Amino acid sequence: MPDFVYDIPTDRLAIWFLIAALVAVAIGLFVVKPLLRVLLGTGPNFNASINHVTSGFSLFYGLLLGLLTVSAYQNSERVSESILNEATSLGSLYSQLNVYPEPFRSEAKWTMRDYVLYTIHKEWPAHRKGGILNGGYNRAEAIRRQLAEFEPETRSQEIVHSEVIASFKDFSDSRQRRLAGVVTAIPNILWQAVLIGAGISILLMTMFRIRVRQHVLLGSITALFLGVILFVITTLDRPLRGEAALEPKPFELLWARLMVWDEPLSERF
Fold it and tell me: What's the predicted TM-score (pTM) here?
């Protein structure tokens, strides 16, 4: 799917899909169908022949649409889970820092708060435009360096520090999966198959020999449903892209419930 499609507001995109479906039906009924009648002619078994071909095609095309819808939904769910895991790991890491001595504790917490604010206010808007900023990587790397440079002085600090390192690894893994969600998409070759199949589906539907009013009504209903399915797949195709992208709710909750209380009073709200 062309990249500019994801920049269109969701409600407008839905309308465009429905309009495109209705226009395709109109072209099929009033332009293509008369030409095909001249080329193919008609006969007593014409509808039965078209119905036989349409039934087989609809079976395979419906299977393709179903698989793509499920795949797009699963991609969105995986990215959503990675966002939740990233925020959860970072929250656990932030809480574990309470047992560290000063000034390391305050400095590390400040770096993590900076990472969360940057993710919410800078990185997420970039994700919605299909971009990944270096600032997020730099802040995550700053957290890693701070943890790596800390030298435990007691056995209890060694135990806690090993748990913190494990939490950071979970955070880093979830972050990478979240970033992969920015470019997660259905391959173009599948989109080409879907769009070609949609055109063939509408073409076969318009070839039936029935009354014009009935044909327009039944064709419009079928095309509108096809447009809705394509709209759903497009919306779920890029989980972090466009107006319908996943929200950074886990990070916002992490900030509001845990991190904001370590901010100066003048900067909390």
Answer: 0.82
